[in-house]
Structure formats: structure tokens, C-alpha cells
UniProtKB/TrEMBL annotation, chains A, D:
Domain of life according to the entry: Bacteria
Keyword Transferase: yes
Keywords annotated in UniProt: Transferase
InterPro entries in UniProt: 3-oxoacid_CoA-transf_B, CoA_trans_fam_I, NagB/RpiA_transferase-like
Classification via SMART domains: CoA_trans
GO molecular function: CoA-transferase activity
Name under which the protein is recorded: 3-oxoacid CoA-transferase subunit B
Similarity comment: Belongs to the 3-oxoacid CoA-transferase subunit B family.
Lineage: Bacteria, Pseudomonadati, Pseudomonadota, Alphaproteobacteria, Rhodobacterales
Pfam families per the UniProt record, alphabetical: CoA_trans (PF01144)
TrEMBL record, chains B, C:
Annotated keywords: Transferase
Entry keyword annotation includes Transferase: yes
Molecular function GO labels: CoA-transferase activity
Entries under InterPro entries matching the protein: 3-oxoacid_CoA-transf_A, CoA_trans_fam_I, CoA_transf_BS, NagB/RpiA_transferase-like
Top-level taxon in the UniProt lineage: Bacteria
Entries under SUPFAM superfamilies matching the protein: NagB/RpiA/CoA transferase-like
Name of the featured protein: 3-oxoacid CoA-transferase subunit A
Similarity-based family: Belongs to the 3-oxoacid CoA-transferase subunit A family.
């Protein structure tokens, strides 16, 4: 059986156009890079300061001054650019990032993402997520459809929002959904699932 | 020409209760020797402005562990459980700021602007208590400038007049913080003669730097 | 990888009536071949945003002489008597903006901020008609972002993916303008293979650049 | 007889402390650099983008990409830094310039400078002057005391101000004056002049 994370990452990768500038969140979203062809001319931004992030470096070749936004060692592809935090978030907030892919705790029926804290439980901080959701041209949420069988796509979320701006696409291992002014639309059902299953696993109304 | 200082001189420059900006991102591009010096001299009551508190034993994480920090302004503390524990125990007041807002608030102070008008944080808890200004039909949060008494800056190289050069992702908050503090102390990995860093490679002009930490002896 | 364009293709990219940002300071760091192409194709009705209008025959001055400009947003026009004459004749509307405000207004547009809160211009004619915002007991002018349809950028070197490097004082407004326009066209002195410009020397990442002007043939 | 401009430039130079960052306006203020000892460690900013501006380059050695704010060829001293306009004016407005020296059309009794336009006659634009007067730590006006025998230091100016912030010092070929909350103070009378002469050539009250 295919891993849910792989299914999600592969499907998100199909959304990435050649020659674009893409920011992948840490964790599941970072797997998307594995499914983008090398000749696509896609540049990945790590918001801590590089455009043109590459894969993990060979053992022993790591540079402590070249890491991703999670602090992990990376490489830089030919044509990479090193930037400071002001420039990095200038690109993000200024609409220069074509696509950002972020993980999610919950998404509400209006397509608004919550992914940075669970009051009373987990307060990691928003890092760059609020700027990314507010500023990137296209925001894709990549997350499992449920958390221990509890829907993560809900009518209303009790969690603090990451941004008032609705995301553009939600990709789970079960489905692809898009927020619209009339609510969430079910665009695709993943192979091995059916629409009824998706609806049962979802806490918000889905139109076709 | 700057005088190189020793780590032991830092105590006299950073008093208890000071507001200190510290460069770095998850410990990358952090002035580790200057941080160690603050721990060694037993500093207390610091307000630290930094992107994150790294992990225990690294960068700002060392100051958290040492109990030197009473207030932390940062965008992320999720990878340091000690920061979370001390926050929950009421020992550290944490102000969480979106990363792009954090760097612009620091920049605003450094470049003499009165604040930042950003869409980031609207409709979230970040908006609470802040003025919303409408410009050309769109709404923006007004975020205030962030200043510090001291900025501790990590650089790849400094020259004798204090020009700083950074390397890859170790740049992050360092050049912006070097503009926003009354006193700027740089910790370079290498100190080179004037002229070795060409004018176009300088990201922090020496005029912004008050002291350069000498090489470890 | 960018496609190199020819100067003759510029006409199709910059229509009459467009708002065009043009890098340069008194003609230094100005995209002269791109400017020549706009003159050659007989563009009319342009709004030009630039630091200055240089002198007749140089940089933006060529567009003024050609009668291509109906509106100019700049900090200084004093060294181009033609700009003054056309302004006095009502042929060019000139908006004079303090230089630091000009670059921050452009930057604000480029980095997604809603405006600039600056003390510059308070108590002068620059204040007229603008909101004044008080932050922490101090007053600031609210200046709006400046955007453009096209930015014409001069660089020392570009690589095949459009990364740009600048040289000494030819940098000036170029990197900021490269963030604030819908379409960015770079005119480099040299075009080099990817990797020749190291990551830390890139001041404008190629992702911001739409077209690179090919070498003159 | 010594040239008035030289007298002014020499006197202003005495105000410059070692190791400072200084911005000199074009024209008369730029002459100040001639009287600063080379071993003073003073860096001159040209607001178009360099810290560490040096003297004119040798004939044939000029680089068209290295000029001052007037567009004239310059050199760069060892330790110079090239910066863009955002950084340059960030330094100016952010209070990182220790001293700026600017020319003036008129200064009023409160010490406020007008130097960027004469309505109906000359509209060159303010360039960087408004930011410099607003943001530099210390602002020195270097100008001739009169213009064709008409005082340039006046009770009230009809000219548009450069900044609401009073300047810190006014240096002319006749005198050195400082604005105070109680009006202009006459600090020094230049050799070859006397206080009565200075007062006759001044359109505002001067205290001692």
C-alpha cells in the first residue's frame, strides 16, 4: 500500500509548473521536491535565505552555513542566490513566490488554514507561515485528510487562523479540494477512495 | 579601524536587563562565542529579539537554558522544549511575531521608518490590539519598530574597519539587526585586511559596527 | 533559463501609456539600450518612475527629449533643463519625491507592504494632502507604494537564469525596482554561464527577471 | 584674499571627528573633504551608493560605474562598501550618518533650512536633502552669508522648507551660528569680520 504522504506529495507535484519559484514547508510539503523533474527549471526557496535549495548533501560535505528552514543541511543548485531575511520575506509578501505548499492542522469551510498553534497545548509559533499564506500567489495545503479519524477539514475551526486569506487548493491522500465563494468544492477523489468516503471523513459540506 | 574586543569584555557592554538582538536562524549564523560569554558572565533579565530560540545548547537556546532571558520576541520556539516549558511556567514572556513582520519591524527601526504596514496577521490573533490602517482600499496592520540596546551579529568575515560579509543561509537576520541597535558587536569567523572584502561583497558597512570580537586565543 | 530578447522586441512589451520604472542615478546604472529602443519605436504617453532625468542625451533624458514622457516621478530634475522646460510648458507632469521616500515607496510595492511611514517631508510641501500617522508619540507621513507595469534594469552581469549582479554605484535603484513591476527586463553588460555569479553575489534573483536583453549584435 | 568657500570649508572640517561617517552635499560642501586629514578614518558617503568615496580618479582611470551624487567620477578608498539606494537612505534616515554638510538658499530664525526650490524660478527637486536633514545625527549648513548682499539667514523664509527639523550649525565665511530654542546664537565671528558686520548681514536676531 502506498504511503499517504507519498500520494499527497505526488499529487501536489502535479500542480507545479516549469520555471516557477516554489516554497515548500517543512515535513510533508518538503517531499514534493522529490517528484519535480530536474529539468523543470523550478527554483525552491528556503525562507531562511536561499533560492535554489537542492537535495541533501553527500555525507561529510555538509556546510553548517547552508541549511533549510528546519535547520537541516541542504545543497544549493547551480544558479542559486543567497538572500537575507528581509529580501526573503520581501519575495514572499510581495507576491513573488508562485506557489507555497504548507502543512495544516485544520482548514475551515471558507478554505482558511490553521497551522501554527493549538491553544493550551502546542505553541510553536507561526514562523514564516502567516507571510507565506498571505503573500504567495498560490497556496496549497498538503495534509492528511484526518487526524486519528477526526476530520481536519471542518465547518468552523476553533484554532487560531494562519491568515484570513483562503488557500487555493487542499490536497490530501483522499481528495483534492478547492475553496470557492460558495464553500469547498470536491475536485478529485484519489484512486482507492470514493466520494461518499471523502464526505464522511470531512467535517464541512463539499460541493461537486 | 576597530579595536578587537575579547569575549570577556562583553559583560561590560551588555548589562543585566538589556534588550539584545541576536542574529541566526535555528542556530545557523548565530554568534556562538558572544552568546557563550553572556552565559559565562551570568547575565540576567535580558530581552532577546531573535528569529527563534534554536534547540537547547545551540544559539539563543543556551541563554534560555541559563535562565538569562525574561522576554523573547521571536517567530518560532517550537523546536526548543525548554523555551516552551519556561513560557508555560511564566519565567519567559514570549511575543510571537510572524517572521516577515519581525524582520521588517527590525528594519523599520534601523532605517528610521515609523512602523510597518503589513497584511500579514490580519484576521488572526496577531491583529489583537493593533491599529488597522486602510491604504488605497486595502487594510494593513500597523506594526511598530523593534529596537535594541545591543545587536550580536555573526559574520563570515570582517575586515579591520568592520565591514562584514556573510555566507549563504548564515546571513538571515544579521544584516538587518546590525542597523537597529545602539551598539553593534560582530563575531566574524575570519578577520581580514582592508581590501580583502571587495566593496560589492560588503553587506554590513563597517560604519554600523562598533566592536569586532577578536579571534579565539 | 531565460530567453534573451532583442532591443526590437521591447516595443511589444512596453505599450504607449505604460508606467515604467527605470534604474539609474544621473545616467549611471541606466539601461541605455532599452531606453534607446523605446525612443526608436516612438513610445508616447509614458509615466516614468526614476531617481532623476539625468541630462539631455543620457538615460531618462533621452525619453524626455523624445517627448515620450507625460508624467515623471523623480527626486531630482535640476540637471536637465529640458525636463524643466517641458514641465513649465505643461507637457510633463512632475511629481517630486524625496529620494529616500522614493526608494522606500518602490520597495513597499515590491515587498508587499501597504505604505511607508517616514518623518521625511513633514512640515514641507511634501506633506500636502497626505495622511499623518502618529506612532509611539512621533508623527510620520504615510506615503503610498509605487508600482509599475515594467521595470527596466541595468546590471553588470546576468547569468542564463537571470540572476543579476551590480557594480559599485551603478546599483542604486535597480535591485529595488526589479521587485516592484509586473514585467522586469534586465540589460546586463555581460551574460555569463550559470555558476559564474556565486550565490552570495546575486543581488536580484533570476526569479524576479522576466527577460534579459541579449548582447548587441 | 582667501576665497569665502575655502574659509567655510576649512571651518566646517574642524567640526568633523575622527572615525565618523559623513555625507557632503555637492558644490561647496564637497570641498570640506579637502581639509580632513587622511589618517582621520572618516568615511564619506555618496548617497547614490558608496561609503568610502575618495578623491577624483587619475585621468583615464575613471570608471563610469563609480560616481558621486552629482554624477562626477570618484574613487573608492580601501574599506569602501557599495550599497543600493534603499540601504543608502536607510543609513541616512536611520540616524547612521554622523554628520551631513549641505548648502543652503536660506535658513530661518528657528534654524530651519530651505535649499531645494525657489517657487516660480528653480525647481530642481529635493534629491536626498530632505532625508539628510531629517535623519542625519548632525546637520551643518555651509553657505555664503549673503547672496548679492541679501541676507540668507532670515527671520522667516518664503521658500519651502527642506525639513521641519532645525539644523545644528550654520557656517558662513563671516560667522558660525547655532539654532537654539531661543533663536539663533552667534558662536564665532570669522577673522577679518566683527559682530556688528555679521548682524548687519543677517536678517534675523542673533544672541551671543
Amino acid at each position: 500500500m502506498t504511503d499517504a504522504r507519498e500520494v499527497i506529495a505526488r499529487r501536489v507535484a502535479a500542480e507545479i509548473r516549469p520555471g516557477t519559484l516554489v516554497n515548500l514547508g517543512i515535513g510533508l510539503p518538503s517531499l514534493v521536491a522529490n517528484y519535480i523533474p530536474a529539468d523543470f527549471g523550478v527554483f525552491f526557496q528556503a525562507e531562511n535565505g536561499v533560492i535554489g535549495m537542492g537535495a541533501r548533501p553527500p555525507e561529510g560535505m555538509q556546510d553548517p552555513d547552508l541549511t533549510d528552514a528546519g535547520g537541516g543541511f541542504i545543497t544549493a543548485v547551480p544558479g542559486a542566490a543567497a538572500i537575507d531575511s528581509a529580501m526573503s520575506f520581501g519575495l514572499i509578501r510581495g507576491g513573488h513566490i508562485d506557489v507555497t505548499v504548507l502543512g495544516g492542522l485544520e482548514v475551515d469551510e471558507r478554505g482558511r488554514l490553521a497551522n501554527w498553534m493549538i491553544p493550551g497545548k502546542m505553541v510553536p509559533g507561526m514562523g514564516g507561515a502567516m507571510d507565506l499564506v498571505t503573500g504567495a500567489r498560490r497556496v496549497i495545503v498538503a495534509m492528511t485528510h484526518t487526524n486519528k479519524d477526526r476530520p481536519k477539514i471542518v465547518a468552523r475551526t476553533e484554532l487560531p487562523l494562519t491568515s484570513a486569506r483562503p488557500v487555493d487548493l487542499i490536497v490530501t491522500e483522499m481528495a483534492v479540494l478547492a475553496p470557492t465563494p460558495d464553500g469547498l468544492r470536491l475536485l478529485e477523489v484519489a484512486p482507492g477512495h470514493d466520494a461518499a468516503q471523502v464526505r464522511r471523513a470531512t467535517g464541512a459540506a463539499l460541493s461537486d | 579601524m576597530k579595536q578587537a574586543i575579547r569575549a570577556t569584555e562583553l559583560a561590560a557592554l551588555v548589562p543585566d536587563g538589556a534588550t539584545v538582538m541576536i542574529g541566526g536562524f535555528m542556530g545557523v549564523g548565530s554568534p556562538e562565542r558572544l552568546i557563550d560569554a553572556l552565559v559565562t558572565c551570568g547575565r540576567r533579565g535580558l530581552t532577546v529579539i531573535a528569529n527563534d530560540s534554536a534547540v537547547p545548547g545551540v544559539g539563543v537556546g543556551k541563554l534560555v537554558t541559563a535562565g538569562a532571558v525574561v522576554r523573547l520576541v521571536a517567530s518560532h520556539i517550537g523546536l526548543n522544549p525548554e523555551t516552551q516549558a519556561r513560557m508555560n511556567a511564566g519565567e519567559i514572556a514570549v511575543e510571537l511575531v510572524p517572521q516577515g513582520t519581525l524582520v521588517e519591524r527590525i528594519r523599520a527601526a534601523g532605517v528610521g521608518l515609523g512602523g510597518v504596514l503589513t497584511p500579514t496577521g490580519l484576521g488572526t490573533p496577531v491583529e489583537d490590539g493593533k491599529p488597522v490602517i486602510e491604504v488605497e482600499g486595502r487594510r494593513y496592520l500597523l506594526e511598530t519598530p523593534l529596537r535594541a540596546d545591543v545587536a550580536l551579529i555573526a559574520a563570515r568575515r570582517a575586515d579591520y574597519v568592520g565591514n562584514l560579509e556573510y555566507f549563504l543561509t548564515a546571513q538571515n537576520f544579521n544584516p538587518v539587526m546590525a542597523m537597529a541597535a545602539k551598539l553593534v558587536i560582530a563575531e566574524p569567523e575570519h578577520i581580514v585586511p582592508v581590501g580583502v572584502i571587495p566593496p560589492d561583497a560588503v553587506r554590513t558597512p563597517g560604519a554600523l559596527v562598533d566592536h569586532v570580537l577578536g579571534r579565539a586565543t
